[in-house]
Amino acid sequence: MENIKAYVQEHKERFINELIELLKIPSVSADTAYSHDVFETADTVKASLEKAGCDFVEICDTPGYPIVYGEKIIDPNLPTVLVYGHYDVQPPDPMELWTSPPFEPVIKKTDIHPEGAIFARGACDDKGQMYMHVKALEYMVQSNTLPCNVKFMIEGEEEIGSKSLSWFVERNQEKLKNDVILISDTGMISNQQPSITTGLRGLSYVEVEVTGPNRDLHSGLYGGAVANPINVLAKMIASLHDENNHITIPGFYDNVEELSLEERAEMAKAPFSLEKYKNALQLNDVYGEKGYVTNERNSIRPTLDVNGIWGGYTGEGAKTVIASKAFAKISMRLVPNQDWEEITELFTKHFNSIAPAGVTVLVKPHHGGQGYVTPIDSIGYKAANMAYAETFGVPAIPVRSGGSIPIVALFEKELKSKTILMGFGLDSDAIHSPNEHFGIFNYLKGIETIPLFYKYFVELSK
Ligand code: BES
Ligand code: MN
Ligand code: MN
C-alpha cells in the first residue's frame, strides 16, 4: 500500500478537477426546479464508477431520484464492502452570503485549510466525500490491490429523507448483501486528530400551522380582541423548553439512554476548546440544557429546534395586520432508544393540548429516522482505526455526532450489517451553510486512507 501516497500525489490535479466538474451540477434534491440536474448528476456518478473500474454499473429508477448502483465482484468467497454516499446537495440559499457562487467551485485558502479548500455546495456533504471512494477504487483497481468485493450505492435523496432509498433497500436485500457498510458523510475532530463517528442522532421533523381568524385583519380594529396566531405560536414554541432548557413535552425523555459518568468522562477526553468554539461562531457564550457540556448537548442529548418560522407581513415598511395563520418548521434530534414515530406522536398531542382557545393547530409530520450507535470492538471499527492511525500517525477517537443519517438504522434492520462512519470533513466546513468547503488535505487524505480500510478489514476477517 506504500504506493497509494505516490498515486495520490501523481494524480491529485486530476482528482481535484474531476470533483470540481461534479460540483458544478446543482443537484438540489429539495427544489424541483433542479430536477434535471439531479438526474444528470446520477449519470455523471455512473460514468465515474465505470471509469474507476466497476464491472457493472446501473441507474436504478425509483419513485423519486435514481440510485446509482455499481459493483466489482472479484471472488464471491471474499468479504464485500458496501459503500454508501449521496450525490444530492442542500439548497444553496441564502445566495448573497456566498463569497463565490455555490456551483462555480473555486479553491481558496483558509486558516484551517492553509493548503486550500474547494468552495462549493456539496463539496464536503457529500459529493467530495463520496468521490474519495470512487478514486480509492480507481487506485485499488489500477494497482491490483483490491482485496475483496465492493458494491456502491449512491443515492439522490439523502437531504430530503431518503424515501426512495428505503423503498430500494427493502426490495434489494440480496443484491445489497455485504459484510460491512462504509460511509464518508460525517466529520472528524481536526486534521491532526482523526475520529470515527460511533453514533448518529435520530430525527423527527414536523411543520406546524396555527390558524386564528379566517382572514388577515386590521390590527387596530381587531387587535387585542382576537387571538393573533403569530403571538400564540411564539408563546407555544417558547413553552416547549423550561428554564433549564429541558424539553417540556410529556414523555419526551422516557426512553433516553443516560450515559454513565464513566462514559461521560471518556467523552470529555476528546480535545475541545470552548474558547475556540465560541470564537468560531462569534458567540459571547454557549447555551443549552442544564447539567450537560457542549459536546454532550450536541451528541448524546435530544433537542428541539425551530428551523423556520413565518407568517404575516415581512415586506418593506410597515403594514398593520393580524395574520390569519402562522407557521413553523421544527426538528427534534433524538438519541438511541427514542422512537421517532412515537416522539412525533408525543409532539403532536402536546402541541395540540397547549393551543389556547381562539386558534386551531395543525401538525404535519415531514420525515424522520432512528438514531444509531455502533460498537468499537467490531472488525470494521478496528480496520478503520488502523487505517487512520497509518495515514494520520495517531489513532482515531470514537465520537458520537449530533447529525443524522436516518438510513443507517434502516441498513442495520434490513441488511443486518454494521456501518462504519469514516468521515473526513470538519465542523468548520460549513455544510448546509453558505460557503461550504472541503479541504484539499482532507480530500486527498481520505483517498489515501480508504484503501487501507479494505486491506485491514479483509485481514481481520480471515
Ligand atoms: N452528512 C449529513 C449528516 C452529518 C453531517 C452527520 C456531519 C454527522 C456529521 C447529512 O447529509 C445530513 O445533512 N443529514 C440531515 C438529515 C436528513 C434526514 C435531512 C441532518 O442531519 O440534518
Ligand atoms: Mn450528507
Ligand atoms: Mn447534509
Structure overview:
The chain is α+β, with helices and mostly antiparallel strands and 462 residues long. Helices cover 33% and strands 21% of the residues. β1 and β2 form a beta hairpin. It starts with a helix and ends with a helix. It binds ligand BES and manganese (II) ion (2 copies). The site of one manganese (II) ion has 5 residues, from loops. Keywords: Hydrolase, Metal-binding, Protease. Pfam families: M20_dimer, Peptidase_M20. InterPro entries: Cyt/Met_Dipeptidase, Peptidase_M20, Peptidase_M20_dimer. This is Dipeptidase.
Largest β-sheet summary: 6 strands, mixed
Q: How many distinct helices?
A: 12
Please count the beta strands (DSSP E, at least 2 residues each).
18
The secondary-structure class comes to: alpha+beta
Distinct bound molecules = ligand BES, manganese (II) ion
- Which segments are poorly predicted (pLDDT under 50) over 5 or more consecutive residues? none
Share of helix among residues? 25-40%
What shape does the CA trace take?
Answer: globular
What average pLDDT do the residues reach?
97
- Side by side, the strands of the main sheet go 1-2-6-3-7-17
Rg is 23 Å
Termini separation comes to 19 Å
User: What percentage of the residues does DSSP assign to strands (E)?
Assistant: 15-25%
Domain Peptidase M20 dimerisation: 199-357
Keywords: Hydrolase, Metal-binding, Protease
Protein name: Dipeptidase
InterPro entries: Cyt/Met_Dipeptidase (IPR051458), Peptidase_M20 (IPR002933), Peptidase_M20_dimer (IPR011650)
